[in-house]
From TrEMBL:
Protein keywords: 4Fe-4S, Iron, Iron-sulfur, Metal-binding, S-adenosyl-L-methionine
Domain of life: Bacteria
The protein, known as: Radical SAM protein
Alphabetical list of CDD domains matching this protein: Radical_SAM
Organism: Aedoeadaptatus acetigenes
């Protein structure tokens, strides 16, 4: 998926109807959006003035957009209409929960220029959904995604790994479900924040988040799965935040880069008895080497010193011991 020029509008946790165990309870149910239509128009104008490439796309993030009062939804969407009519915006995208949406809801959103809808799926395992207190069933998620696709929307689906009652097998099942339905995906590792039920579960010894190593390895496999299904993954790992913002869990600023390195690393370790040299395009070599030399260190821990050589090439080619290496998912 080509990278879009997005102007984000944040409506933090507005409209959310439940208290998932991983969300800060002080920021959800009962707090209405403080964003007005005037705010939206101002932020779009500022985004365009600050060099946004025209046509841009405005995105409503952070809350459960379709569970805001319909009047509030329409107010926020209406603010974007002059920019759409002028050609400054190509459309609207929004993030929401996958329930209580009908054909008429999607028709209304489409009439305002909404083209992309992202749903937080998190997991398709009933036990995980119950343990996370998601408040939505797999059947409801399936119905909503089907209706959205039939209405012509570009659909993004988000999954979380490492939730209570989760497992590698359940994450794989969720990814396959998403890959069969979504146009693109996101992978978020479960991280523990204060003022959440998950935090209390950790304190009581009832929950242990994935280690960074486990989350990286699991995400690498899921990236392979999505890639094999030709479903782009537009984010792996949580957005950048301060270390003090969370308590425990597999967070890292370079999380995706670690996962991409492991994707290349794991098959090499499995296939080769000896590795003396790695050569390829700058991008391919850098991806394998990984952040802080993650992949290089892992290779050299097994094979001893390895010669890495980069060359100017637009192709994502990589050679191991002088022979072409192809990373294929199996």
């Amino acid at each position: 998926m080509a990278k879009r020029n997005i102007i984000p509008i944040f409506i933090p946790f507005a409209g959310c109807p439940v208290k998932c165990v991983y969300c800060d309870q002080n920021q959800i149910t009962g707090i209405s959006s403080t964003v007005s239509g005037e705010d939206v128009a101002h932020q779009i104008a500022r985004g365009l003035e600050n060099g946004a490439h025209i046509p841009a796309e405005v995105a409503f993030y952070g809350g459960t957009f379709t569970m805001l009062p319909v009047e509030k939804q329409n107010e926020l969407l209406q603010a974007a209409q002059p920019f759409i009519r002028s050609g400054a915006l190509s459309g609207i995208r929004l993030s929401t929960r996958p329930e209580k949406l009908r054909e008429e809801d999607f028709a209304r959103l489409k009439s305002y220029g909404v083209k992309t809808v992202e749903f937080g799926i998190q997991s398709v395992d009933p036990d995980v959904l119950m343990a996370a207190k998601r408040g939505v069933s797999v059947e409801e998620m399936d119905r909503t995604v089907t209706v959205a696709k039939a209405a012509g929307f570009h659909v993004g689906l988000q999954q979380m790994i490492g939730l209570p009652e989760d497992s590698f097998e359940k994450d794989t099942k969720t990814a396959r479900w998403i890959a069969e339905r979504g146009d693109f995906a996101r992978i978020y590792p479960t991280v523990v924040f204060k003022n959440t039920e998950l935090y209390a579960m950790v304190a009581a010894g009832e929950f242990h988040p994935l280690s960074l190593k486990e989350a990286i390895e699991r995400s690498a496999y899921l990236l392979d799965l999505y890639d094999a299904a030709s479903v782009p993954v537009i984010r792996v790992g949580l957005p950048q935040m301060e270390r003090s913002a969370y308590v425990e869990g597999p967070y890292h600023d370079n999380f995706r880069e670690f996962a991409e390195s492991h994707r290349q690393l794991a098959p090499i370790l499995k296939k080769y008895k000896a590795v003396e040299s790695v050569e390829g395009s700058h991008r391919a070599v850098n991806r394998l080497v990984g952040p802080f030399g993650y992949g290089r260190k892992a290779l050299e821990a097994v094979y001893g010193p390895v010669a890495f050589r980069s060359k100017n090439s637009v192709e994502e080619e990589l050679q191991i011991n002088g022979e072409e290496y192809t990373h294929a998912f199996n």
